From TrEMBL:
The modification O-UMP-tyrosine is found at Y51. One of its GO terms (cellular component) is cytosol. One of its GO terms (biological process) is regulation of nitrogen utilization. This is Nitrogen regulatory protein P-II. Keywords: Nucleotide-binding, Phosphoprotein, Transcription, Transcription regulation. Coiled coil: none annotated. It comes from the Bacteria. GO terms for molecular function: ATP binding; enzyme regulator activity.
Length: 112
């Protein structure tokens, strides 16, 4: 099993979710995140005052998948999240040793 984690632009959530649903993904977890990458934030002017935004709002999407589905899900997330501009985000994949469905006690791929 694999855990696919993406930190992406908030406005891309609906596109990613629709893409994953069309791929047959049963569930995902979404949470708010903030941070910066190479762009290191930006300077904004509000009512004549200049201020620095160091942490940019993002969302974190996590999907647990079988080994067979992982590459397809990864490619779908890349396609849906990409704008071609700096700040599109990062996606990483890690190996998952075990998963348990709490309600039934199912383990492994059947718990997904």
């Amino acid at each position: 099993m694999k855990l696919i984690t993406a930190i992406v632009r908030p406005e891309k959530l609906d596109a990613i979710r629709e893409q994953l649903e069309s791929e047959g993904v049963q569930g995902l977890t979404v949470s708010g995140a903030s941070g910066y990458g190479r762009q290191r934030g930006y300077v904004q002017v509000y009512r004549g005052a200049e201020y620095s935004v160091d942490l940019i709002p993002k969302i974190r999407i996590e999907v647990l998948s079988t080994d067979e589905q992982a590459e397809e899900i990864l490619e779908s997330m890349i396609t849906a999240a990409s704008t071609g501009s700096q700040g599109d985000g990062k996606i990483w994949v890690v190996e998952v040793q075990d998963a348990v469905r709490v309600r039934t006690g199912e383990r492994g791929a059947s718990a997904i």
